[in-house]
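Hello again, I could really use a second opinion on something today. I've been staring at a protein lately and its backbone has me curious. You're getting the sequence in one-letter code plus the fold written as tokens. I'd be grateful if you could look everything over and explain what you see. No rush at all, and the record is pasted right below:
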Amino acid sequence: MRPPYPSLSSPFTIAAALALGHTRDELRQAVRVGRLVSLRRGVLVAAEARRVAEQHDTTLHAQDIAALALAMPRRSLVAVGASATRIHGLPLRRSPPDELAVCVNDRRRTCGTHRDGYYLRVARLPEHHVETRHGVLVTTPARTVLDVAAHHGFDNGVVATDAAYHARLITPSLLRLTAEDLENRPGIETARECLAFADPAAESVLESISRLAMREIGIPMPETQVVLYDDGCIEIRVDFFWRRLRLVGEADGLKKYTLNGRQPLDALRDERERGAHPARSGLRHRPVGLADREQSAAPGRPPEAGPGSGRGANRPDRLTRRSHCHTRCVVPRPSWAGNMTHRV
């Protein structure tokens, strides 16, 4: 009778299997026939556990981190940065790197390295910045989004922070306290800018990207998730609202047209009725669909953009955005924009 494996749900070392009575030849045969999967040198996992982990990116990445920790038993590895966002289920503006990102807290005995599909960094990790998720050590959501902003840039930090707010993983006060612990961390100024710009009211990645695009081209920041009233009755809640311009904006992605099993025609009909509510109140309503990556249309960001002098929507005194959703947002052209037309 074959001895049991050290674990049927998580990675284990060959040494642990040998201790239970397995032989190396038997383990090699199990890998060849598909009962076991080799994750790293000296680290195996049951094939069924691997198939279950592959159903979700969070559990799959956590399993890879656990295998790396077993392959480096003398170091207490903590998933950080892009790896931590994947384990927490937080998105980034751009696709995260495939390599694992881990960190150790021992500066005296460890040097940072990049090899064998992982980045090993050395940094100060207070105990309250680390937690356990899916069986592996990982930085807390607050530490994670600040690390992402500092290491992977402002845009990725904003998208991850907005998503963490929406998932109720962080609060503004918790972010500020965590940032105070990282006063001397490289890139902390970018992280603080991200903290100030992030919006706890954001409800999707597309809304975060939309606000980043507005920042890049100098459009004044709108109020977000505003409830509009008509004769004292609640009508609708809109994604963006420029009160001075009496302009409503909606961040519309293709996913909304099939969300919750809806038929696309029914979704379009609901959208048309939704757009009629602001019109009855004298507001302009424009859906805004943005591609995955916008290009900056102006080198500077003026403090405020005023209305253009033209009246027609198709005249050159308007700023036009077009997206893959075949929707258009027309807002008054600021005086600094000249004759440019920004397309996405």
About this structure: The radius of gyration is 25 Å. The first strand starts at residue 12 and ends at 13. The CA atoms of residues 40 and 81 lie 22 Å apart.
